[in-house]
Amino acid sequence: MAAATPRQAVTTTEVVRRRLEGGRIEWRGLVFEGLLLGSLIVAFAILVTLLVTILVSGLPVLLERGLDFFTSPLAANPADAGVGQGIFGSLVLIGFVIIVAIPIGVGAAVYLEEYARDTWFTRLINTTVRNLAGVPAIVYGLLGLAFFVVIAAPLGNGGRNVYAGGLTLGVLVLPIVIITSAEALRAVPWTIREAAYGVGATRWEVVRSHVLPYAAPGIFTGTILTLARALGETAPLIVVGAIVGTFRYTAESFFDQLSGPFTGLPTIIYAWAKRPDAEFREITSAAIIVLLVALMTINAVAIYLRNRFERRW
Amino acid sequence: MEPARGDTAVRDTPTIRVMTDQTLDEAERIASAGEPESVAVAIEPDEVIFDLQSLSCFYGSFRAVRDIGLRVPRNKITAIIGPSGCGKSTLLRSFNRMNDLVEGARIEGTILYHGVDLYADGVDPVEVRRRIGMVFQKPNPFPKTIYDNVAFGPRIAGYKGSMPELVEQSLRRAALWDEVKDKLGSIATSLSGGQQQRLCIARAIAVEPDVILMDEPCSALDPIATLKIEELMRELKENYTIVIVTHNMQQAARASDFTAFLSMGDDRAGYLVEMAPTQQLFTSPTNRLTEDYITGRFG
After folding, report:
1. How many CB pairs under 8 A join A and B?
2. What is the CATH number of the domain that holds B134?
3. Which of A293, A297, A294, A247 is nearest to A267 (CA)?
4. pLDDT digits (tens, 9 = 90+) for B209-241
5. Rounded (to 5) percent helix, strand, coil in chain B
6. Which member of A102, A148, B261, B298 has the greatest number of CB atoms within 10 A?
7. Are A199 and B142 inside 8 Å of each other by CB?
8. Domain membership flag for residue B148
9. Can you give the residue range of the structural domain that contains B97?
10. Could you give the CA distance from residue A260 to residue A44 in angstroms, rounded to a whole number?
């Protein structure tokens, strides 16, 4: 019995050491890790291939043509064609989105989050908004064709003008603006609202002086990302009647330009990509680079703003 | 509010079982009696700030607080104690209609404030909260400057006097001035927890209320910051009536003049067991439940 105690101790130490040092390999874990890494590599490889292909064929055009490519109008000869009209059209479209979607979207979000009571009706609206954000863009295009083109008809070109296009894009991104703004508002803690109510603030004062200012960076970032989405949309513009060729880019008055036929950067890319000639393929790539750089800039600005103003509660 | 309540209720289930096991007869007797005896505290009529008459608070169909009748005296500190989940905070939040903001919350019975029914038609809850300020469990300064935190209330109330003076006076009363006088422009969230809570007190008194409600104001603070707040409360009662919810019995014993003890019935609704001058309640409670609670036998 007396010898049993020390031997017991030795055995325990031995067992512990063997357990700790006997590095068994966790095969299933390794396989899983390998699969995950594989998915990452595939995704990344596709992206890189895409980018490299576009850069190889488009970059020489950009370098050779320089500023000329950004300012030139559309032309039958690819050596003269540029994306000037597309840039102008896209800027105008973005302007419409800012004017239409942001005030309405933020307003709707503030109402849903701060004012609406929690009833089956508001829940229905919330669900609907979420679903609308997932509706394919082409459906919005058809809505625009049936609705905004008719409304915008008196403004010129039978309604197939930038007003109809801008309204369509505005409605397209409206649900996203509502969702991102609502999320930013929800991120403001309830205790802050209580603090403001506690010193005798009305609901309006709570929203104006506290909730909205604290949520503003989030709302801002969200809406900037929404603009990127609108900038890249092609299908609804084509349905509403964006065309390539006769955009009155150089018309006398700004409003004349707006009331005529219109185009946007993605529409031009779509039109050029259909052409069989190699030169057109090259300027298509160049136009894609312009669009990608614009989108990445917008996203970078949004990320910068988010990091700059992010608030921890 | 509601999820938090549900949370504590679940967490406290074992406590309740212990309580009912030990004092089953007593609890049942009180529960069936409806209005418990010996809750009245002798207070001069013109010293009564709040007069609660068979007050019940509901969240939807759930009754959180049942048939409370009590009076809160002027320029005194009244503590509300009781086990978690017994409706102390709910009761406190009904004093300034803070629960109006919670969907589905409503009350039955009356709360008279200086003789006026707070829940009568035509009573503006915004004006109620201006007169009856509140300090919350977790310090909740606005993410603005220290100055703006204090100035917000008076500003929206249309204060006409000198704002810097009012801010200084409020911060002095909250015993915070010396610590922040050189950095009024800094963001309030950069202060320590105890300082933030005193800032919240300064913010509450800046609108010159009549009553300050405190909902476990020290539960997020360390003992030293807690003592500072208690000291401050004793100074503040010269000018204000204070009602404080606490689940720290020592705090109630140390800092308050009157104590109301709430417990929870089998229907999970809180009810008033007894209210008495603090000294009396802690040394010679008339109710067995109170005695068990303050001697640490449950809760």
Report:
1. 63
2. 3.40.50.300
3. A247
4. 999 999 999 988 888 889 989 999 999 999 999
5. 45, 25, 35
6. B261
7. no
8. no
9. 2-140+210-294
10. 42
Render pLDDT for A176-232 as a digit per residue (tens, 0 to 9). Answer: 999 999 999 999 999 999 999 999 999 999 999 999 999 999 998 888 889 988 898
Please report, to the nearest 10 degrees, the dihedral formed by the alpha carbons of residues B195, B201, B207, B210 taken in order.
Answer: -160
Tell me, yes or no, if A193 comes closer than 8 A to chain B by beta carbon.
Answer: yes
Q: How many residues does chain B have?
A: 299
Distance of CA B60 to the CA centre of its chain: 22
> Which pLDDT does position A2 carry in this prediction?
47
Q: Give the gap in angstroms from C-alpha B80 to the nearest C-alpha of chain A.
A: 20
CB atoms within 10 A of CB A204: 11
Chain A residue numbers with beta carbons less than 8 Å from the beta carbon of B96 are: 198
- Do residue A191 and residue B138 have CB atoms under 8 angstroms apart? yes
ipTM: 0.82
- Are residues B140 and A199, on separate chains, in Cβ contact within 8 Å? no
- Count how many domains chain B has: 1
- Residue A12 neighbours by CB under 8 Å, 6+ apart: none
Query: A192 touching B, CB under 8 A?
Result: yes
Position B183 in a domain: no
From A118, which residue of chain B is nearest by alpha-carbon distance? B103
CA distances (Å), origin B74, targets A138, B103, B141, B211, B257: 68, 31, 28, 9, 11
Domain-located, residue B299: no
Q: Which amino acid is at A244?
A: V
Going by their DSSP bridges, the two strands B241-245 and B77-81 should be labelled as parallel
Give CA–CA dist A230/A164, Å, rounded.
14
The label of the residue with tokens 């506690």 reads A198
Indicate the length of chain A as a whole number: 313
Q: Tell me which amino acid residue A172 is.
A: L
Distance between CA B160 and CA B147 in Å, rounded? 17
Q: Which residues of B touch A197 (CB under 8 A)?
A: 98, 101, 129
Q: What is the pTM of this model?
A: 0.79
Q: Which two tokens stand for residue A302?
A: 């949004």
Tokens for B84, please give them.
């978690």
The letter for the amino acid at A175 is P
Gap between the Cα atoms of B5 and B90, Å rounded: 9
Interchain contact A276–B (C-beta under 8 A): no
Going by C-alpha positions, the residue among A101, A136, A157 that lies closest to residue A233 is A136
The rounded distance, in Å, linking the Cα atoms of A227 and A145 is 21
Given a cut of 70, is residue A167 above it in pLDDT? yes
What distances in angstroms separate CA A84 from CA A58, A105, B79, B269, one per listed residue? 16, 30, 73, 71
B263 touches B82 (CB < 8 A): yes
Q: Which residues pair with B260 in a beta bridge?
A: B80, B275
Evaluate whether residue B205 is within a structural domain: no
Q: Please state whether A266 falls in left (phi above 0), alpha (psi between -120 and 50) or beta.
A: alpha
Q: What SS3 class is residue B52? A: strand
Which chain A residue has its CA at the smallest distance from B205's CA? A199
The stretch B8-12 carries a mean pLDDT of 40
